[in-house]
Design brief:
Helices cover 0% and strands 55% of the residues. It is an all-beta fold.
Length: 116
């Protein structure tokens, strides 16, 4: 059974930093492209960042470029999102997603609140 479990969310002040983690099990993690998505209250889910299976290529939404960094450790079956200088508009539930061809798996999300 595939499981993706996000952690590391919480309350962070604007300009601070936070690191999200996604622990994967039940799949060949190193074969899957991974992504972070987020969904703010009243808004649609949107792509934040993605990384290829081997970690050689990354992609970011314009709104987080230069502030967030996606990374992965295939030896630990883990995905990360380093959030630097978060803004109140980054407040959302953050989800990790694994994709291989037509197969997709989602975690249940972790809430990040950016507020002073």
């Amino acid at each position: 059974q595939v499981q993706l479990v996000e952690s590391g969310g919480g309350l962070v002040q604007p300009g601070g930093s936070l690191r999200l983690s996604c622990a994967a099990s039940g799949l060949s993690f190193s074969l899957y492209a991974m992504s972070w998505y987020r969904q703010a209250p009243g808004k649609e889910r949107e792509l934040v960042a993605s990384i290829t299976a081997a970690g050689g290529s990354t992609n970011y939404a314009d709104s987080v470029k230069g502030r967030f960094t996606i990374s992965r450790d295939n030896a630990k079956n883990a995905l990360y999102l380093q959030m630097n200088s978060p803004k109140p508009e980054d407040t959302a539930v953050y989800y990790c997603k694994a994709r291989l061809g037509i197969k997709e798996y989602w975690g249940k999300g972790t809430l990040v609140t950016v507020s002073s």
